[in-house]
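Our collaborator T.R. sent over the components below with a one-line note: 'Predict the complex.' Nothing else. No constraints on interfaces, no templates requested, no preferences about which chain binds where. So this is a plain run: every listed entity goes in together, and whatever single assembly comes back becomes the starting point for the next discussion.
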Amino acid sequence: MKISLQWTVGFTQEAKSLPENFIPAVVPGAVQPDWASAKGWPAIEYQANYPVRYEDRNVPIAVDYEWMEDVYWLYRTKLDFISTIAGQRLYFVCGGVDYRFQVHLNGQIIYDQEGMFTPFEIDLTDRAQPGDILEVLVFPVPKMYHNPIDEKQSNQSCKPAFSYGWDFHPRLIPLGIWQETYLETRPALHFRSVEVFYELSQKLDQANLCLEIITSQIGLGRLKWKILDRAGQVILEKENTPEQFQQCFSGSIESPDLWWPNGQGEPVLYTSIVELYDGAGTLLDNRMSRVGFRKIRLVPHAQSWNDPDNAGFPNSRNKPPITLEINGRVIFAKGSNWVGPDMFPGRITTDTYRLLLQAAYDANFNMLRCWGGAPVQKEGFFDLCDELGIMIWQEFPLACGFYEGTPAYLRVLDQESRSIIRRLRSHASVVLWCGGNELFNNWSCMTDQDLALRLLDRNCFELDPHRPYIMTSPLSGWAHGGYQFRLHNGNEVFQYFPKAHNTAYTEFGVPGIAGIKLLERIIPAEDLFPPRPGTYWQARHAFHAWNGSPDSWLELWCIEHYYGMPATLEQLVEWSQWLQSEGLKFVFEEARRQKPVCSMALNWCFNEPWPNAANNSLLSWPAEPKPSLKAVSDALRPVLASARIPQFSWVPGETFTADLYMLNDSPAAIAEGRVDATLRVANQDLLLLSWEIPGTPANTNLPGPTLRYSLPDLPAGRITLCLRVKDHPDWNSEYNYLILGK
Amino acid sequence: MKISLQWTVGFTQEAKSLPENFIPAVVPGAVQPDWASAKGWPAIEYQANYPVRYEDRNVPIAVDYEWMEDVYWLYRTKLDFISTIAGQRLYFVCGGVDYRFQVHLNGQIIYDQEGMFTPFEIDLTDRAQPGDILEVLVFPVPKMYHNPIDEKQSNQSCKPAFSYGWDFHPRLIPLGIWQETYLETRPALHFRSVEVFYELSQKLDQANLCLEIITSQIGLGRLKWKILDRAGQVILEKENTPEQFQQCFSGSIESPDLWWPNGQGEPVLYTSIVELYDGAGTLLDNRMSRVGFRKIRLVPHAQSWNDPDNAGFPNSRNKPPITLEINGRVIFAKGSNWVGPDMFPGRITTDTYRLLLQAAYDANFNMLRCWGGAPVQKEGFFDLCDELGIMIWQEFPLACGFYEGTPAYLRVLDQESRSIIRRLRSHASVVLWCGGNELFNNWSCMTDQDLALRLLDRNCFELDPHRPYIMTSPLSGWAHGGYQFRLHNGNEVFQYFPKAHNTAYTEFGVPGIAGIKLLERIIPAEDLFPPRPGTYWQARHAFHAWNGSPDSWLELWCIEHYYGMPATLEQLVEWSQWLQSEGLKFVFEEARRQKPVCSMALNWCFNEPWPNAANNSLLSWPAEPKPSLKAVSDALRPVLASARIPQFSWVPGETFTADLYMLNDSPAAIAEGRVDATLRVANQDLLLLSWEIPGTPANTNLPGPTLRYSLPDLPAGRITLCLRVKDHPDWNSEYNYLILGK
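Returned assembly:
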């Protein structure tokens, strides 16, 4: 039986002093929103409520969160329970405290831990009485150094780096009890752990299961184990008497329905129910979990062993594999980079995830890369991904830094990574472990020899050997970037991606401005137009957000290059979103056109942890789609007609060209058909070409003709290439490009 | 006290039957030479004594070794010892049996193991009586399959692959007791293991030692530990009473003299002596070992973080590091690939190694790559490398194959790799672990995800975390090959290496014919000249040895291209060795010229396990230098004048060019000086250029001028470029190239 607890919280300057005041605490949550709420501060997400102190001193500080990083926070609760029945045990159960903490019972330290990802239980039986005081003392934010105030302060801890300040995340570092936390009474004999492992036979026609249980006592009780299929039918039933603390029971399922990613089949999940009875047949404990049967391999791409980049002598190696093979089928992985959906992970619920993940599913995603700068998400996230068939690339909490393998760091990384692996390994959706983000680039300077990354490989190998592990992204042959529609050297995505021939594009982005309604909520009216540095546009990352570039992510210079100066906010937003939509559509389709050498495309990024005025994300916080989401969704349809157009803006007299393709990522062949290509210029539709498409096998693209059209004298404005597929309007595509005045 | 054993051996078709005959066995050794010796067969290394059956049926089979692969071999000894004194223990101690075996005592199985690299001890106290029969039953050669008969039969075992047949190794797969094997009586209290670990302080000015001992009993005895410096002075002395089976004792040494590789300083070794006494002060056991203090790191090369190969977007990772930093100093690693020096590792003694390693030292080597196709060498090898300052890159026994991570294979790989790591980790000379040879190339098709390689990383990380581990060679940015003076496309080493810009050349070769005296011993007189397929030239790998190429390693087509048809054996040998010498000299110097992007050059290969008629090795079996050894030795001098000459053969009228360099790998700066470049043509020395060299820092090269000389009408023959360094004749260089008739 679970007993919820009521918490208060207060801060102190020293671990051993008591807070002067306690305020109500929301658990799970974080101390910052508790404090803001107690003080009546407005919601931090909107208007001028953001502590901009670190980033731009031109913007006044409305409220101050900075000091909260460096104090101790004491959570306190009175144990309000009825004395336990003889034979029952009483536990304090906590899913996670962020970050370093102690647990005190009546002022005595009874537990001590560093690390937010390791849950814990404390047996309070015979130790705590009703009315006793239980406290959780949370230490200040871990920092490698005090100055400069930057994200690399996190580099000797397992605290996610992005809350220390990032181009899309303000500096605001949560602390507090962030996972479910309660008292629980349990019978003396209960489960300490229940886990279902399986191996699929070579032909995938048999699942050999292993139920591993750990019980609190031995030699007592009776175990019942059932597996139910999707229809709720029991297809496996076992009974046994556990004889050791830790024991395995085996079972097998013939011809299991497999778990498939979105677009490839159904993400079939079975249900496992395990019950523990005492000698009299009374149910003591039970656990329910879900199992999706699938086999994952990371395999070299189709041409890897005869790579023209590595021909002749002297001869190097093939590129490290990044092609996913699921259930024996090579799959093009497509989707986005996922960041934390809220600055305070403690506030996140399954509902927070639901809207976002449904949007990812609807956008034809089959993969999300859970980026190492953000916390590992809560259970609800993985449950939903299991259900939706969204594959998860999960990183450990390392990003863009040099995480030196000191003994103290390796100790906490060992503990935290083991906890993360144990928690997630039963999820069908999780297909890949990764050490962290961009660790082998010159802003991080780690290498394959770093002990942190070897430790992570060791832990993955030991606890989860059949799930691939990569040290970081990118590795050789894959790429990150660019993050702009037009680079400062004048290259557009339309030129620099077709020249690349990477095996995976695991980050790339085109920024877009948020919708007007959101802008009005986060930027004071007087700042709204025109946008300029030193206003809330800057605090909201439209200026100086990234790499010292003066107007990222607004990219005003780029918008002006194509459209001229916007006269209104509406115009500015429309143009920015247009560029984001066409830019991302192009890159996703180009990556797919480069199949099978390329087998993955994940844009940066899907969502954001708070509302930015401009950002690479497809949705604004909390889950407001930008128009680019629809564009990406179109580009990721299983089957579509596609065009490679070599530049965005055209002038009359130029020859407009487009390389036509049929793209097919689906497990079904395409029948013969026809694609009509028309150009819509000045409100006229010109049929330029009809392409008779032959039948095309499953999961295979079909290159087509190159269309050429000498542009007549046209007024400046939109030019639209329409590809219409006979009898398949759902495969049609449109590309909105630009005619510039001569 | 050690008691040696007298062994006999015989074969049977089945594990459970007994041999019909027993013959005398040499232990350590192998069953094949025992059999050959009993039958009076001539030495397999010479003349027509080689079983060519698998490779070329045109050559008659003189003797037959093939059947020996597939039978069981039973070693037998009578335990000839005096009954043990009360309190003494009796052990059967064995350093290794090749490959799968059981130990029987009076017909009972008392031990069972797969794997030649794991030593074992069996406590026979109270179990064996004088006169008892002890047997070692060796199973047939492990084979993944029976056909085809090739080297990949070894790919589910830890048996070194090269003995299954390689371009320089005949098919002959040793079996038997290959390491020291004896009875030993010990006091009840004795050491089970003694090992000295250390960490150097950041500034390398303090060594913090940890003596880890495991004793057979606890709570008894007294331990004395001494560390002696090079002069034999005791610089650390500790006494203690072990209180646990496994215990660590610490100590520290201030300002230790460091161990340096050849050419960089002295390979200083300290001596550790550990003694165990009983309560009465009687010495029970003692162990002596040596410690060399040095810090190894594998670091990115100087330009790695700003690599022009990875500029702009989309952006990938830096190249994986292969630059060795020893004691904080980046070192250019130079040397060779080491293969087994004998087909039968059991016959190898420290004397086998001594000549070869002295030759490597004299050739200015600071590194040998112990290639994974050959067995891990015996202790004497590593002891000598410790003393000579030769760094060792040690591979696990995987080469050129797909070693699938089946449970059975992973089990034996786990055991064997742990044994190898434990045995070698105390050696100062061992600087790098490597999973195996060319596993990420299309003749192997393994990837970073293969469980075998992840297991090896795990074991290295756990047992030896501060020594770098790489999965295979080459990795991205490094290269293997070419193996020919002139490729079939006409490219010479003089062209294809300057075009490469790899970070390490970890294999490259130019073949050369063996000396005439050796040829006369291995090829019957009637076959000697001209060399042709179907004779012993072929059996000795001069034809069809590699990649299906008809005359590798003889490369007759290449010799004829430059010199025409040889008229005599003497001419043939001279020309082949000339090409090998100039080819290798060029590649080594070119790799050094590419410093600091390039930081390693290791030619294929140093030695050979039996006498080949033609091979890429610098020495013929057992330790006969070819002229190329001197050429390589010259190219690897710490300091030398060097020339990049763009082609080997010239015709009158062409402009002869040479890019001049001073190469400095030494830790000392070069003072100002002068290099005179003269061309010796038609017995005349023409001074073409004097280059005034400025002072040059330690470990740094100096690019110089390009010499140009329009070649006059000259007779065909040798043309020699001589670089003479004023006051430093030891830095002079000579390059012998060729004038072709017009």
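Summary for T.R.: The mean pLDDT of chain B is 95.
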